[in-house]
Amino acid sequence: MTNVFCRCIVQIFIFFYIQSAACNVWADGQYEVIIHPDVSDKNLSIKSLRAIFGMRLHTWSNGAMIRVFVMSDDASLHQKFCKEKLNIFSYQLRLAWDRLVFSGTGQAPIKVNSSEEMLAKVANTPGAIGYLWKADINNDRVDVLQIQ
Q1: Averaged pLDDT, 102-124
Q2: Using alpha carbons only, what angle is made at residue 110 by residues 107 and 45, rounded to the nearest 5 degrees?
Q3: 13: buried, middle or exposed (CB in 10 Å: 19+, 13-18, 0-12)?
Q4: CA-CA distances (angstroms) from residue 90 to 73, 80, 126?
Q5: Which domain of life is it from (predicted)?
Q6: CATH of the domain at 44
Q7: Is a pLDDT exceeding 50 seen at residue 26?
Q8: In this structure, is residue 19 part of a structural domain?
Q9: What share of the chain in percent tops pLDDT 70?
Q10: Domains contained in the chain, number
Q11: Number of neighbouring beta carbons within 10 Å of residue 41
Q12: HSE of 35, CA atoms in CB hemisphere, 13 A
């Protein structure tokens, strides 16, 4: 009886592990972090990405100023990006930005209202970073940032 029970438990864990892995691959493949073509950092650690979008890292490795663009807090892409890439809920990120602004120690990122505006702002602003659905990315105008 215990041998059958153990096998069932192992199969359940394997099932959920495979489901979780499949969901993560699917979710991460839908959108990309994009940067202005003049940004010299084409690869970035997840820690640095969190610092950039948390408004704690202000310059790229070459000293150029980072300009952060985000979508509204209720946009589905913004929520997915926060949860999947930054490992934080969008409302927690908003609280961190508000704290910086109200304490006078920092700024909030620049909000855009659409994918088209995100593409245009990142493509036309030196040092810019943002995120877009893969289908909306025009690789001639922006580069995709590789996250390690």
Answers
A1: 95
A2: 80
A3: exposed
A4: 6, 9, 26
A5: Bacteria
A6: 3.40.190.10
A7: no
A8: no
A9: 80
A10: 1
A11: 16
A12: 20
